[in-house]
Specification:
By secondary structure, the protein is α+β, with helices and mostly antiparallel strands. It has 10 helices and 19 strands.
């Protein structure tokens, strides 16, 4: 009996001292909301408190080695990708700062120690789904996001920030589609017009016809599997390339005999702006790496039409030369989810988009979302036959007798490369 009492006393003391040690930890969740920034839920379940403190205290030991990393910030969806983000971005120094179960307010509270202390080279954010489970309103969640973004921008006003739309889930997970849509709309409103922040449409990327997650990508309707993470990585790569994290050198390419390049891969020589109605040239970008407004940029062999901070902005870039003879035009393009662009052949526009989501050709078998795809337009006698990866887009595309080649920007990011033309006899 005596040994049993000693054992119970030992257990009690252990629990007391562990609680004292936990409370004393600078990485523990504050016991109350008093004086904390933001609004809404801060989780304090036992499992979550232990995980939150353990993750953060571990990261504190790696602050020096994680300096200037690309930081991924979020909850269990981010944490579940692994410390090196599943090796999805070879050559990029990454730091995973996702904590399972976290909320926007939790992220705000830990932002200084977990993120800003690393002086990150960029930040990718996905957060908000757990707030909904805790019955926070979309307005409160978006308010916390604004505070997070304000702190990131204050720390480094030039650091690229990629804000991912909150992924779809399910009403059965207390994350109904209408609330997620509302939250994402408020997210966009919070960043609209801010060139430092790029919003990535990762909701439409994953949503089914009802606006919910698909079990093939989210087996529990909340967390992605390998297929889901692969799609997320593919969606991020074009933006990471534009910001210089990956694809820092142009890929080697040899043109076919008889073709001439319309884009040298280094700058916008041979391209400029034209008046919309008359196509009279209004600006020439010879020798320049970017258009005056930065919308069109030459980056490592790619002609990038950057994501407009307004959400949508229609704009066209044209060759300074015109092409009166029959010809074959070849180019490759890569689009972020739901991106909308176009290729002008002399004057009419051939829709060039993320076809899988934006259409109009949603059933193409050979189209590769968020990867490089080839368009070929064969122009003969005022008619262009256009294909994408060998599949027919338009066999009777009528074009004028002469005119330039143009590229449109509208929604999302579009990249073009290997733009070349061969005159036909």
């Amino acid at each position: 009996m005596k040994s049993k009492r000693i054992s119970l006393l030992f257990i009690a003391l252990t629990l007391i001292f562990s609680d004292i040690a936990y409370a004393a930890s600078p990485f523990a969740i504050p016991e109350t909301d008093e004086g904390l920034p933001g609004e809404g839920p801060i989780r304090r379940y036992g499992w979550f408190k232990n995980l939150w403190e353990r993750k953060r205290s571990g990261w504190a030991k790696k602050v020096e080695q994680d300096q200037e990393a690309l930081v991924f910030l979020g909850d269990s969806i981010t944490q579940g990708w692994g410390d090196n983000m599943g090796n999805s971005f070879p050559g990029v120094k990454v730091a995973n700062r996702g904590i399972s179960g976290d909320t926007t307010r939790g992220v705000l509270i830990r932002l200084k120690e977990d993120v800003l202390s690393l002086n990150p080279s960029g930040v990718v954010i996905l957060i908000g789904t757990n707030d909904l489970e805790e019955k926070a309103s979309p307005a409160v969640i978006a308010g916390n996001l604004k505070l997070i973004l304000t702190e990131l921008k204050k720390h480094n006003p030039k650091m690229p920030i990629i804000l991912c739309n909150t992924f779809p889930s399910s009403a059965s997970k207390r994350r109904p589609a209408d609330k997620i849509k509302e939250m994402n709309q408020l997210y966009f409103a919070a960043v609209k017009g801010d060139p430092q922040i790029t919003m990535l449409d990762t909701w439409l990327l994953f949503a089914d016809a009802m606006g919910d997650a698909k079990k093939v990508e989210f087996p529990d309707l909340l967390h992605p599997n390998k297929l889901g993470y692969a799609k997320w990585a593919a969606a991020l790569r074009p933006l990471l390339a534009t910001h210089g994290f990956i694809e820092t050198k142009p890929e080697e390419f040899s043109m076919e005999p008889g073709f001439v390049s319309l884009f040298n891969g280094k700058d916008l020589t041979g391209w400029g702006f034209r008046a919309k109605k008359t196509l009279k040239q209004t600006a020439n970008f010879d020798g320049k790496k970017s258009s005056e407004d930065g919308r069109y940029r030459a980056i490592n062999g790619r002609l990038v039409v950057t994501t407009p901070s307004e959400g949508r902005r229609i704009q066209q870039l044209w060759t300074t030369k015109e092409f009166p003879k029959d010809f074959i035009l070849k180019l490759e393009f890569r689009a972020t989810p739901n991106a909308d662009s176009g290729v002008f052949i002399r004057k009419p526009q051939l829709q060039c988009r993320d076809y899988a989501l934006a259409g109009p050709w949603k059933t193409l078998k050979n189209y590769k979302p968020q990867e490089w795809n080839e368009i070929i337009a064969v122009v003969k006698g005022g008619i262009a036959r256009c294909t994408c990866n060998g599949e027919l887009l338009n066999a009777e595309f009528k074009v004028p007798a002469t005119g330039p080649i143009g590229l449109e920007g509208d929604r999302g990011q579009m990249e073009y490369r290997r733009i070349r033309l061969k005159a036909l006899k």
